[in-house]
From TrEMBL:
<dbReference type="Pfam" id="PF00196">
    <property type="entry name" value="GerE"/>
</dbReference>
<feature type="domain" description="HTH luxR-type">
    <location>
        <begin position="33"/>
        <end position="68"/>
    </location>
</feature>
<dbReference type="GO" id="GO:0006355">
    <property type="term" value="P:regulation of DNA-templated transcription"/>
</dbReference>
<dbReference type="InterPro" id="IPR000792">
    <property type="entry name" value="Tscrpt_reg_LuxR_C"/>
</dbReference>
<dbReference type="GO" id="GO:0003677">
    <property type="term" value="F:DNA binding"/>
</dbReference>
<protein>
    <recommendedName>
        <fullName>HTH luxR-type domain-containing protein</fullName>
    </recommendedName>
</protein>
<dbReference type="InterPro" id="IPR036388">
    <property type="entry name" value="WH-like_DNA-bd_sf"/>
</dbReference>
<dbReference type="InterPro" id="IPR016032">
    <property type="entry name" value="Sig_transdc_resp-reg_C-effctor"/>
</dbReference>
Length: 107
């Protein structure tokens, strides 16, 4: 998983007022470009469900769920790279686990 994909996943998992616009952009992009199965796995994963739980609900293997998740997240990451700010880890604030918007993605 690329660094950008990890940042997008972090942004989706950590709901806050500051990132509402970015979350909405990511979710809309995901809805438009992912297959239905990828979209369903994407939504379940960002809602905190584990691969094992999703696989059991869908009646497929964990490997299938993992493949849909990684492929979907990479597709969304690639599509969002020009419109989302980069989230960089701040060493000074690492104890609180805070991330800050510091710069726009380099083209």
């Amino acid at each position: 998983m690329t660094g950008r994909a990890k940042r997008i996943y972090f942004l989706l998992k950590n709901k806050s007022k500051e990132n509402e616009t970015e979350r909405a952009m990511i979710l809309k992009t995901a809805e438009e470009i992912l297959t239905l199965k990828q979209w369903l796995v994407f939504r379940m994963k960002i809602n905190g469900e584990r691969n094992k739980e999703i696989a059991k609900k869908c009646g497929v293997s964990e490997a299938t769920i993992s493949e849909h998740w990684v492929t979907g997240l990479e597709k969304v990451s690639e599509s969002c790279k020009y419109m989302l700010p980069v989230l960089r880890f701040s060493a000074e604030k690492s104890e609180g686990g805070r991330f800050l918007y510091e710069e726009w993605n380099a083209l």
